[in-house]
Design goal:
single chain, alpha/beta, Rossmann fold, GMP Synthetase, Chain A, domain 3, 3 domains, 5-stranded parallel beta sheet, purine biosynthesis, ATP binding, GATASE
């Protein structure tokens, strides 16, 4: 990487990402590393200009306070500490310094240049991918999500037809999503794309399965099976492309940071898939991934795609999945997204979707009694997905959405709006 870097050493702070983002917002690249990094490892990083020791509530590990190697203080980099009372440096702070103080350290003391931007990042990564891959091939599971789509676009810029994309349609995608993936990557970007329609295979495996965790395991396991089957048909594949992003690595834990959750793309590959990884987005936060997608020329609807669970609509078709209810989820979700976009809510609301429970309620249709399903609308806002509040959608907008769902979606006679924040509810239903 050609950009200057400020290294944050994790000494148990819960605000490492806040600090890293504050520095990146100044136009200077910043990375979080474990507290026990050696001088040799630090010097191996490119263009390091300064070090911040970031202590906090998790600094005590196994009854002892963790610290950095003493020789780090004398290795030639400017050093400041936050909430680390025994740090052997002149400047110590109880909390993250105000912006002017932080800027003074980054630019005046460290001499860093504000050269961190998406144009430079993309150019750097294209060069690095070319160096890593050479003339060999990369295999990528292209789900159509933001991360995999941006990885695909970047790898196409770097190695073109050496990239082999596999898109598996498990039948649990949102309306027109697989078609959009094929249209953008195969038709517009001329990607080497293998499309696998495994709808029948997945729905057969999921028949009569109602437990949410069992459904997730079936969907995840079967996806790996399909992907491995396609990979074995190919020759000369040495690399596996992945959409790992920086929060995946951070949330999976460092030696002093508690693991928030495990991620399938951080140490979760099947052991028999002997590929070297290509992870060009692993330094980016989510909003930076979206900015990277725009820089690469991807369409807005793909870059600003709604967060979507790995099991897809399988966990929004509650209980045992039926084709009838699955189609009701898919169609109602499409209506909700269309009307939110018309109302300008698509960029305001963090996540919105519909679910269909596995029970019916009595209603009236064509002057006769009917017994049909309900659609539940959920729209929430959050900063970190740990807590979430309910979006207060205008009544007129909800009325339009309700009328459209009742008139256009088969086997539905009732629409409800979920008013439950997180906690005590969660974002998804299953």
């Amino acid at each position: 990487m050609k950009q200057d870097m400020i290294v944050i050493l994790d000494l148990g702070s819960t605000e490492n990402t806040v600090l890293a983002r504050a520095i990146r917002d100044m136009g200077v690249y910043s990375e979080i590393h474990p507290h026990d990094i050696t001088v040799k490892e630090l010097q191996a990083l490119q263009n390091v200009k300064g070090i911040i020791l970031n202590g906090g509530e998790n600094r005590i590990v196994d009854g002892e306070a963790v610290d950095v190697a003493p020789e780090l203080y004398g290795c030639g980099y400017p050093v400041i500490s936050i909430d680390h009372p025994t740090a052997k440096c002149e400047k110590r702070y109880d909390r993250i310094p105000e912006e002017p103080v932080l800027k003074s350290f980054v630019f005046d003391e460290c001499g860093a240049e504000a050269n961190w931007n998406m144009k430079n990042f993309v150019a750097d990564q294209i060069e690095l991918v070319k160096q890593q891959v050479g003339g060999r091939k990369v295999l990528l599971a292209l789900s159509g999500g933001v991360d995999s789509s941006v990885v695909a676009a970047l790898l196409l810029k770097a190695i073109g037809q050496q990239l082999v994309c596999v898109h598996v349609n498990h039948g649990l995608m949102r309306k027109n999503e697989s078609e959009n993936v094929v249209s953008v990557f195969r038709d517009q970007l001329s990607a080497n794309l293998i499309y696998v329609d495994a709808t029948e295979r997945f729905l057969t495996k999921l028949a009569n399965v109602s437990d949410p965790e069992v459904k997730r395991k079936i969907i995840g396991g079967e996806f790996i099976n399909v992907f491995q089957e396609e990979a074995r048909k190919l020759e000369g594949i040495d690399f596996l492309g992945q959409g790992t992003i920086y929060p995946d690595i951070i949330e999976s834990g460092t030696k002093t940071a508690k693991m928030v959750k495990s991620h399938h793309n951080v140490g979760g590959l099947p052991e028999d898939m002997k590929f070297e990884l290509v992870e060009p987005l692993k330094q980016l936060f989510k909003d930076e991934v979206r900015a990277c997608g725009i820089e690469l020329g991807l369409p807005d609807y793909m870059v600003y795609r709604q967060p979507f669970p790995g099991p897809g609509l399988g966990v929004r078709c509650l209980g045992a999945i039926t084709r009838e209810r699955l189609e009701a989820v898919r169609e109602s979700d499409a209506i909700l997204r269309e009307e939110f976009e018309k109302a300008g809510l698509d960029k305001k609301v963090w996540q919105y979707f519909t679910v269909v429970p596995d029970f019916k309620s009595v209603g009236m249709r064509n002057h006769a009694r009917c017994f049909d399903y309900m659609v539940i609308i959920r729209a929430i806002n959050t900063v970190d997905a740990m807590t979430a509040s309910i979006e207060k959608v205008d009544w007129d907008v909800l009325e339009v959405i309700t009328n459209r769902i009742l008139n256009e979606v088969d086997h539905v006679n009732r629409v409800c709006y979920d008013m439950s924040p997180k906690p005590p509810a969660t974002i998804e239903f299953e």
